[in-house]
Fold each of these.
Amino acid sequence: MHLKIITHEKAVFDEDVDEIYSKGVDGEFGILKGHIPFMTVLDIGVTKVVQGKDTKYFSTMGGVFQFKDDEGLILTQCAECSDDIDEVRARKAMERAKARLAELGAKIDAKRAEAALARAMARLKAKMNNLN
Ligand code: ATP
């Protein structure tokens, strides 16, 4: 089967794969060859891809996942392979978002800081080869 991970900027991944794991808004899911057609809205999180003995981890920032006829497609705002993730930058982004959240308390503006925190956490998890 095949997986494409596409952002509005580029194709981050476009290869044959054996297994796909990610997190939709309804929960985590795994896909193997021959899976029935499936579609979900993705959460901000990590997508894990198995190719033979290799496993790759990507941060995927929401969007949609579609699977049909052994073709998987992720359309997402932003995605990075763990090799391309700058861990120091993600840690700094996480600290900034936490500080902002502490400052904001329960205000509406907290949504933006929460999203920044979720992106930073997804990058750190992908970098550490963690799905969850
Ligand atoms: P930061 O505050 O560090 O910019 P951010 O979550 O605001 O983080 P985004 O707006 O999600 O960043 O992404 C902007 C661009 O920077 C995207 O192209 C994304 O791939 C890249 N990017 C963001 N953080 C990292 C990181 N830690 N490592 C590698 N690329 C990153």
Note: The pocket of adenosine-5'-triphosphate is lined by residues 78, 80, 84-86, 89-90, 93, 116, 119, 123 (CB under 6 Å).
Amino acid sequence: MADVIRLLPDNVANQIAAGEVVQRPASAVKELLENSIDAQATKIQLTVEEAGKSRIQVVDNGTGLSETDARMAFERHATSKISRAEDIFAILTKGFRGEALASIAAVAQVELKSRPQSQDLGTCLRVEGGKVTRQEFCNTPAGTRIEVHNLFYNIPARRNFLKSDNVELRHIIDEFERVALAHPKVQMNMEHNGSNLFELPSQNLRQRIVGIFGKKFNERLVPVEESTPLLQLSGFIGKPEYARKTRGEQFFFANHRFIRSGYLHRAVCRAFEGLLPADTHPSYFLFLELDPQRIDVNIHPTKTEVKFEDDKAIHTIVQTAVKHALGQHNISPSLDFETEQQFTPPRPSGSVPPPGVHVNPHFNPFDQAHSGPKGAPGDRAPTPPTSKQSQEWESLLNQLPEVPDQKQQQTELLDENQVPEKRPYLQIARKYIATYHSGGLLLIHQQRAHERILYEQLRGDAQGGAVPSQQLLFPAQLQYSQGDFALIRELFPTLRALGFDLDDFGNNQLIVQGLPLHLEKTDPQAALDQILENEKENKAQGQRDMLDDMARQLAKVAALRSGTVIDQVRMAGLVEQLFACQEPAVGIFGQAVTTHFRAQDIDKYF
Ligand code: ADP
Ligand code: MG
């Protein structure tokens, strides 16, 4: 038998490896930006077209590459950053695997122009699908300019797998923001399809945060500073009262590299415990500096997931320092002076003691806005009622008419559209509406009912063509970060189709003059935050019905919450509207809205 094993040609091997490093345009952007940082650039310009699908260009004023190095840079495992295995552990630079350029060049058409300061002529190199197609001397400014065209042009399957421009651009902006935050001294600009998204001069961290996320952030930031032998921690947290429903502004950097760590995230969240309204998220921009030998950054191919050698101690330091910052700035009203004493964090020296932080666990500044428990009301197996509950039911049950057909199914209920006006309604646990129906007991989840009603109204209006919009007495002017604004601007047509009257107000501001008719009591900021959050969650598939999705999100924000007390008239109105819906029994996120107990179901409890 003939030998069959062959070595893969380099370009094929590179293409395979590329899958690991370059998953989407944003991954190429990240690698290129980090290379420029590693090359000590003080100025970096990122230009993308069509969310990076057709063009990504990074220009820096860094060290540049010599002719030989330019050629070498595209070889796999070619790096100027590691020469011995131990270097991997000591490395402080961003990239260190020598794979990025080779990977990008394997799946795109790349042009590199580079010149070290000390040389007169630069090098121009073209690489296509991993093969060098041209190399010559050229005139070019000192530094490096890399242009990546038609990413995945030779791997259609991957190209098709890319999400909409909106989503891909969001990923790119995320990467840009991370690098920009980690290196505030570096001047960084970003342009997409000819318009400037970011123009960030060399600045300090606070200015950079404000430059990225908007002026409003200035008053929101509280500095965090902690120095221990193990670790230096610095940066900012957002004051709890500014916590928003959108996640997003949560950043950890270890040795100036963006990292993800669910573990440290929980440390921060614990420090905020009791200070945040339900469903809101704290913002933080925290920088950890520690001996690189004590971090294993290389366990994840895209190098954002890290492992710390002393993770427990680091957890403690982070939690304590954040708690301390919150306390020092008198923004934790729950702390009386006695507890404040214990608040000064134990400064760990050598070994780290557990956090000595005590917060009144019963304090909840947001009690009034309490949005009620989050049970699973779709549960169809009720536990037997207590005696108090049974008293409540008595009046209802007394009025039960005799129903001849006891076998009535729950589904039949849904076909009945009339809801007699005069029947009594009872609000249970501030979240269910109880009434009798077909000789049994009907329970309605008030929040889900209202969500369903609003959703169908919004959809109906949008389909009707002429969308009714309720003009606001005081138009709302909303400020966004550049990234969020870019995203929201792409959503204008759909938002307008749903009845929003809004416009670009310049400087990343939005002016909202009118809201969809059925949303007139809703806070425009809350509504748009919810939509943004949903977009960022990356659920955005190419095929999805954006209008439908948005209507759902809006209904969710605007609906009457569980926990809100409502009167007979409101309950009657809700029930009536619910049964005028096309699908009254199903919540807009698929859960149950109604449950019907037939008399014989109730009999079991007696
Ligand atoms: P790594 O960054 O892991 O070393 P890359 O494939 O990203 O691997 O880059 C390979 C090499 O090319 C780098 O080690 C560096 O020497 C050089 N290089 C890449 N980008 C630049 C740049 N913008 N300026 C100067 N040198 C660069
Ligand atoms: Mg690199």
Note: Residues 89-95, 331-420 have pLDDT under 50 and may be disordered.
